[in-house]
Amino acid sequence: MIKAEIITIGDEILYGQITDTNTQWISAELDKIGIKTVRKSSVGDTEEAILTIFSEATSRADVVLVTGGLGPTKDDITKKTFCKYFGTKLAVHEQALIDLKAFFQKRGREVTGLNLGQAELPLNATYIQNKLGTAPGMWFEQNGVIYISMPGVPYEMKGLMSDAILPRLQGHFKTPTIFHQIIRTVGIGESILAEKIADWEDALPENLKLAYLPSMGSVKLRLTGFGENEEVIKAQVASEVQKLIPIIEEFVYALEDIELEVAIGRLLKEKGLTVSTAESCTGGYLAHQFTKVAGSSSYYWGSVISYDNSVKINQLGVRPETLDQFGAVSEETIIQMSENVRQKLGTDFGLATSGIAGPDGGLPDKPVGTIWIAVATKDKTYTQKLQLGGFREQNIHLTSINILNLLRKVLK
MoaB/Mog domain: which residues (predicted)? Predict the structure, then answer.
């Protein structure tokens, strides 16, 4: 296994002034060519911190990838620190200078003194042209470890990686084949899921590893195979997935890395069915889950956001006596909301949500997190009561996940 460490340099990352998206993208691309990321680190713009992390990374990794600190200003010290680490000095690289001048000339601009300094590279660096910017990439080799320096600007880094660095790494290392199979589940917690599949997991071949990747309301399983022959690994993984599915079939909604709303959209399209929503506590969030999927206009027709009871009565036709007797957060109300929105908008399914998202509004018999959801068809209405608790945003999100899952079960 070839091991990589990714280092981001810049005070702005540590201060939270920008979001580091580079390390996620780099590790995903390395994974595709069989290089395993074993550590990600962020350090500030100080020589001491950078030298320390370089020394530590050398003991852990076969390839060290560094982003940031290559700009023309005084606070960008990555090149100088590489010089100190390798015991060398900066000098003008002729090809880097030619490419830099061409970059500015193409844009009708003069190269300033500061920018000219970007053509200076450590003497032991192999130059990698940055076609999208002025800061070159650099490749170093010492004691069997590869060091790669790239600009921190994401689109420049991605250009360098895709065009030059990834192909060169593939040529340098004899990497194993890595194959991932994703199994997306919903409606079951991580610990219960682990108990259900414990015997299957324990019996996995040594070259197959399972990872649990939980998120709010769902758990992603990633089955990873390692080996030399890609077709053999894929066949192994497929065989194990066939054994797994019967154990957890009711919770599996996809065998690829897609969100629940995408999977449901596909089911609706396949069956030629349509859906509308009536939302109270989710306030349009459920509609957003449908409409953020491209092509959803073929199956999602619209929503009535009935946040106030007057809208429930006047627009959805919920009976006032139902609200008076049972309240907005009740099975009786949610049934009328779902059935009436289905009829008013003329869809096959009517979905409805009503609850106490919090942080205020809870009652002794209806505490914060009490939610009712419903899915109405022309023949039957399915309801479910949720007791979520937690924070407002969490309750809204989990309500949407649960009603989408209820719709999935009805569709199935």
Answer: 5-172
The rounded average pLDDT for each run of 10 residues, N- to C-terminus, in the chain (412 residues) is: 94 91 95 92 94 94 95 86 96 95 88 85 96 94 96 94 94 85 97 97 95 93 91 96 98 97 98 98 98 97 97 98 97 98 98 95 92 98 93 96 98 93
**Token duo for residue 353:** 């949500």
Of 374, 367, 366, the residue nearest 349 (C-alpha): 374
Q: Provide the β-strand partners of residue 3.
A: 36
Sheet holding 275-279, edge to edge: 300-305, 275-279, 349-355, 370-376, 381-387
The answer to whether the CB of 66 falls within 8 A of the CB of 7 is yes
Residue with tokens 């009711």: 250
Residue 186 carries which side chain, given as an amino acid letter? Answer: V
Give 296: exposed, middle or buried? Use CB within 10 Å, 0-12, 13-18, 19+. Answer: buried
- Asked whether the beta carbons of 370 and 401 are under 8 A apart, the reply is no
Helix (H) or strand (E) holding 25: helix 22-32
Ordered by where they begin, the domains of the chain are 2-172 (3.40.980.10), 177-254 (3.30.70.2860), 261-411 (3.90.950.20)
Tokens read off for 381 = 């209405």
| Pairwise CA distance, residues 137 & 129, whole Å | 6
Cα separation of 255 and 205, whole Å? 20
Distances in Å between the alpha carbon of 82 and those of 11, 54, 72, 121? 18, 9, 16, 10
% helix / strand / coil in the chain, to the nearest 5? 45, 25, 30
| Stated pTM of the model | 0.77
